[in-house]
Amino acid sequence: MLISIGFNGFAQKEACHYSLSGSVIDEHDQSNLAYATVYVQELNRGVVADSTGYYSLDGLCQETYTITVSHVSCEPVTLRLEIKGNTEKTLLLEHHIEALKALTIVGLELSEPSAIQEHMGLNTLERYGSASLGDALKEITGLSSLNTGKTLVKPMVQGLYGSRIVIVNQGVRLQDMEWGEEHAPNVDINSAGGVQLVKGAEALQYGGDAIGGTIVINATPFVPDTLYGKAALQASSNGRGGLVNADVFKSSASGWFTKIQGSLKRFGDFKAPDYYLSNSGIFEKGISLHTGRNQSNRGFDLYYSLYDAEIAILRASHIGNIDDLVTAINSQQPQIMSDFDYEIGLPKQEVTHHLARLNYFRSYESGNRWQVQYDFQFNRRLEFDVRVGDDRDKPVIDLELTTHTLSGDLDLNQKGQFPSKVGLLYRIQENFADPDTGIKRLVPNYIRYELGGFITTRHQLSPFWLLDAGIRYDFNRIEAKKWYETSRWIERGYDTDFGDFVSEVLENQILVNPQFDFHNVSVSVGGVHHWGDKGKIRFNYTLAQRAPNPSELFSDGLHQSASRIELGDLRIEQETSHKIGASIASGTNRWSWEIAPYLNHINGFILLEPEGVEQTIRGAFPVWEYQQTDARIWGVDVRAVVSWHDNWGSDHSYSYIHGQDIMGDRPLINMVPPKFRNRLTFTLPQWHQLQIRLESIYNFEQNRYPNNDFEVFLPITGELQEVDISTPPPGYHLLNLWVNTTFNFKRQNEMQVGLAIENLLNTSYRDYLNRQRFFTDEPGVNFQLSLKYSF
Amino acid sequence: MRTWTPTILYLALFMACGTVEDPDPINQEEVITTVRVTLTPSSGPQVILQSQDLDGVGPNPPVVSVSGNLVAGSSYAGTTEFLDESQNPAEDISSEVEEEGDEHQIFYQLGGNAQFSITYQDQDSEGNPIGLTFDLQTGTASEGTLLVTLRHQPDKSAPGVSQGDITNAGGETDVAQSFEIIIQ
After folding, report:
1. Which CATH number applies to A202-790: 3.40.309.10, 2.60.40.1120, 2.40.170.20, 2.120.10.30?
2. A386, B61: Cβ pair inside 8 Å?
3. Which is nearest to A136 in space by CA: A150, A155, A118?
4. pLDDT for residue B10
5. Most buried among A330, A611, B66, B170, using CB within 10 Å?
6. Alpha-carbon gap: B17 to the closest alpha carbon of chain A (Å)
7. d(CA A760, CA A252)
8. Minimal Cα–Cα distance from A215 to chain B, Å?
């Protein structure tokens, strides 16, 4: 009797159809260990061996996995295992207790949350080492990004980004000013051990306001008594730069471990097919240190990481007024171009992120576990514009965001009918805007308090049905102190609605002390049903509430890179999302497919809308105001993976998304156009594990967009001119080629050599979701050589 | 759950005592609030064209004034000043424009039927015009507009730019203000 129903035909690599099977046996007497558990840490899933100790796991990628084998009467054993094809492995356990009790198997699948989970392993992440987290995440069907140029990449999950996505790095919710459209996550992708997209009840432990989804970046799983590491080098022709990255992990049999990692990334100006993107390079540094002790029933760890990046912003995207924007749109070429250089000139961003975490856990034979964690984050953001005179080298934005979080959670009743997790969290966050910039603060000084609690549970109804549910409550208080121009305070009507907030009045400015409380409730229920060998249906309903972010409340001024005046609104309330997601998957050994539709209805959806034009001494600027509406976003992700022959396979995916502003009866802005991706792979494991992948990506033109065009009087021509800021660029097709080989040396040492060619045909194109699409084409062809030595 | 009790107490205390310090008001630096063009004839009254926007990107539009009409067939010596009048005393931004003359140029464009011409009278370190001083020669009686544009980092070597044609200048606009001109 084999009772394995693990299936993950859609893990994120071309070759994710490998199996791992074998027997679990006692190291001393070689007897088979019935009902032992084999658990894959990276995938959060495992199987229970049958009565003869035989186990089998499907859907594994060509990756290195961390596998924990446990049995009721043995010490658990964790080992790292590289999967290079269908693998047979005998797992040894040390058996202590003589008599094996008869076991009743309750949960066949150890953890199979109902919501769609996607996982990306280290091998895939490493390919994107010299790019960014946002670029890597696009490997997952349904994920995309909102870009500012090539280097600032904000992940988008099913059409939503920024504050609607929770990013958890090493167990810490990232607090890095995610509210800005041109703020990319402050994470060094090279410090990650794996990345998961989590939705549904399980995601509630990370936060209740993830209306889009939760991205969890994991540490490398712990393995006792080992030493391994790697050194990687990537060199790219486009941007004439690359990456150096190295890490070492060392652990002792008694559970002490240390991992040290460091990376350095440097690029000069990228090149579109016809010209250089003047001032588009990046200089990024990351280090991380992870140390602690992991024993079978307790452990602690300390994690620290530093991310530091200096990011150039395309010179031609920094424009003075609407005349300049009209010129840029009409000319179809950057207005400022120069030859290649490595200099990171103006405008630019300098961001630094410190993250420190201290965690202690205890676990019990019952499987129950508790942990407490304190984490600290310090985020500094400097933005430099093109300025004149003495202020030339002064930033226009200088913000310091400090966050302390204390949290604790408890895994309860792990062997009962309703294994549960409860947790509490307290967070205090302070933002400080340095007045030395000499520019009005984009975001005011504030303190934010957050107090939250959650409970999640799951229930195995039958061998084929698993249900899960969770509820979370968060209290949010924000206390801000902000100077308004008196003229703006009155124009907004705040003097009548918020007169109580005023604490000081100067000649032209007014100091106010707004304080807002938000109560957010989130609920998630769902289930998974398995049938046959590979059939699986999942469904999930999630209610989520999100409090407005500081930018939505307090924005007040000219947003240079968008050439518009952006105004927040103190009256904005929280938004509430009802999301239903489902997926159905099936297949055979030769092919598998998955269809995943979703519907997200958001009441009070906060969006920026154009509202007229204001005159300044620089000329006219359109005014965009944050407003609330009801929105509906639905979409479907479809994927099929086919194994044509031993060596040949293909992978096909299609994503469609439809966003509508219900109250305004018009399409939502920045919705991802349909995308059709096809990959053909050839693998020859006998010859240095050769893998060749040809990828074709067709991005359709977005035909559904709101018309935000406006008319402006241009003094130069003396005419009213229609400014077309709405029409998306045409669809485009890209070809990418990727080749990878591995050379094995003694004692598990190996060298990987890879070559990637991106935008093989050197196609000129613009992307609807790049905020620089008015100014420049996307980068052209890039040749990238990768070397990685691991031991 | 006993372990939680002191934690919760501590948090409750913590919560009661956090406050935001009063931020200092920011007086925006290097903001151009005012552009003033002074036209001085060899004899007769000066004509001053001024646009002033004291709340910057605030909701109030700039206040534009023209002190009088120009006389047909006359020559005027022109100077253009950029001021930050949100400071007290007002800061003169024109001197910075002059210091960084090779990175700035002021363009004067005619609109409507106004009959006059403009000749640059100053030079940057490379021998290209800046436009802080100029000559204005009026033609016959007519009406129209004068658009004053300050560009940052224009390409002064592009065709026509040093003759005052903005078409190929590129760069970034710092000021763009239009004045009604009557020549009689």
Report:
1. 2.40.170.20
2. no
3. A155
4. 55
5. B170
6. 11
7. 47
8. 28
